[in-house]
Amino acid sequence: MRTPVNSARFLMMLEDIMLLYRVEITILEQRYIRARTNRARRRIIEHARHYSLISKVPNQLKYLDRLIHVTDVDCIANLRMDRNTFGKLCRILTAEGGLSPGKCLGIEEQVEIFLGVLAHHNKNRVVRFSFFRSGSTVSHYIDKVLGAVLSLHRVLLSKPKPVADDCIDHRWKWFKGCLGALDGTHINVLVGNSDKPRYRTRKGSIATNTLAVCDRNMQFVYFLLG
Question: Where are the domains of the chain?
Answer without folding.
Answer: 1-52, 54-156, 158-226
